[in-house]
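Hi everyone,

Forwarding the result from last night's run.
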Amino acid sequence: VQLVESGGGLVQPGGSLRLSCVGSGFTFSSSIMSWYRQAPGKEREFVARIHNADGRTYYANSVKGRFTISRDDAKNTVYLQMNSLKPEDTAVYYCYAALFGAWGQGTQVTVSS
């Protein structure tokens, strides 16, 4: 099982980024997929989750209305569209495949002017 994130970078407050996570080595469509993040000196926290069976989505209150999680099972990919970014969104963002307890290596998102 392998997960590879991409799409992070430096963005100004109010800007947008789209993160991608490509899975391999497992049947992608069989797993709930999530995004977590970890800021310096803080614990890893839940950001968003998307179910495989019916596409239900769940968000942390801190990102609700600004972030959108989606998935394309044909491409083995889960996305996180992040809009109206704030400095407090700065963190390493990780992809997580719940069925296998597998994490990606993370991608850095920095929101700063």
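The mean pLDDT is 97.

Cheers,
N.
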